[in-house]
Amino acid sequence: MTEATKKLYNINQSVFAVAPMLDWTDRHCRAFHRVLSKNSLLYTEMVTTGALIHGDRDRHLRFSKDEQPVACQLGGSDPQALAECAKMVEDWGYDEVNLNVGCPSDRVQSGKFGACLMLEPELVAEGIAAMKDVVSIPVTTKCRIGVDDQEPEEALNALADKVIAAGTDALWVHARKAWLKGLSPKENRDVPPLDYDLVYRLKQRLPNVFIGVNGGVATLEETSAHLEKLDGVMMGRAAYQNPMLLAEVDRVVYGEAIDTISPVEAMDIYRSYIEDELTAGTKLASITRHILGTYQGVPGARHFRRIMTVDANKTGAGIEVLEDALAAVSHHQSVMREAREQKEAALI
Questions:
Q1: Catalytic-labelled residue, pool 29, 103, 116, 143
Q2: In the list 38, 41, 88, 281, which could disulfide-bond 17, CB 3.0-4.6 Å?
Q3: Rounded distance, CA 320 to CA 326, Å?
């Protein structure tokens, strides 16, 4: 095991990760999430081997060192192509390369990668071994518990045994089946039932292997419960839609005695990133679409979302849109506070 692997996947240290999510976990999203948690493991969107070999590598692989630790997830099935891309990932400075064996979209099936590879554990193992041969960073696997009519325990154990023998440094398990026939990708995120106990049994059978769980985790209370039995927890939509959850991760998961960052403090820090990106020619909405959930559950959240959704998409939109949105939240909270104080005074 390399030093980098030991740092990320020390069996004695729990890992909290934000799941790779297509169209969501781009570099702007990751930069914001890093403001909220310095320890969480962040992932890129899945990028296919074909896109890296034949496409715009800078667009797919560019990231800021401030995002680290950050992993790149690959989609593919050809061992040679996976090895070539894994080396690119390492050369670009990523901390980990991960193989997607869980995405259920039609495009993924036609390209013979993602969840359909649950049917070909030997091929997956060949890909893992090929990547391990050419990089020193951790090579990990993210899978489902089976597809279609597979028996989940048999399918998961078969895949796990093959990739572990091939040298995978960690196995992240989305604890649902993927139905390639009959369910849409969106339905595959919710409809198949979760089976956390199956993942727990896998860990019991493989106590010295890093096993993490993904799927349906919505709170840090649930995270802590999973970490009593597993090595890692990967949170997806809940972390994206309510990003301030991440502000508690360093304290709750990593045991750091720190004050929780507030939404106002987070926006103040992220502001400099936004300004730098605007200067570089990035459109405001491309950056700020990832912060819409920052004030979820907080008075004024609706005003914040409305301004950031509508005004950030206007031609020439700049940092003043964020300032207006923050001012609207502050004003709303001041009005509510004044009304509350008046009501309390009337009761005296």
A1: 103
A2: 41
A3: 10
